[in-house]
Amino acid sequence: MEKGHSYMEVDSMHSAIETAKKHVPVYLMNDWLNIFRMARSSGGRKKVSILYETQELRYDDFYDLKKLAATFVKNRNRDINGCKVQWLKIKCMRYEKAKPHCRSCQIPSELQKLYSKQIPISGLKKQSLMKLCNSKAIPVEYHEWYKSLPSDNTRKDTAPEPSMWSDSEDSE
Fold it and tell me: What pTM was estimated for this model as a whole?
């Protein structure tokens, strides 16, 4: 796809959520869920609104797919001739059932859960949240939720790991 020349339904959904969030304070995950539900999309029709359907996920709803992906996707950066694949320049892909080029791998019958318990936040982050509670920047009725968050003083604040599907041109 040509960068900047695509339109996806999710683009209008994100826009509707941003608009719905503009003047609404958010203190808890449930606040986000309500904003997501109430963000309205006209769906191209005048004055007809559709509520977005949401589903709250917990830590035990996620599966570890790294091993599965490693089994099926061995090389995403070189073509069959060994040339570097320039993903952002690809305009069209063709898949033929008669030429699947798939390894005969057995898909596991049961996937392993990614997390066995709720992921703790860093001790520093918890400390910052408690300061916000103590200064009343976060209203008192939400303090117990923040206090209940598991934390780990050995954990560092980090950005999420990049997706194995990210299409960085620089990665080999």
Answer: 0.61
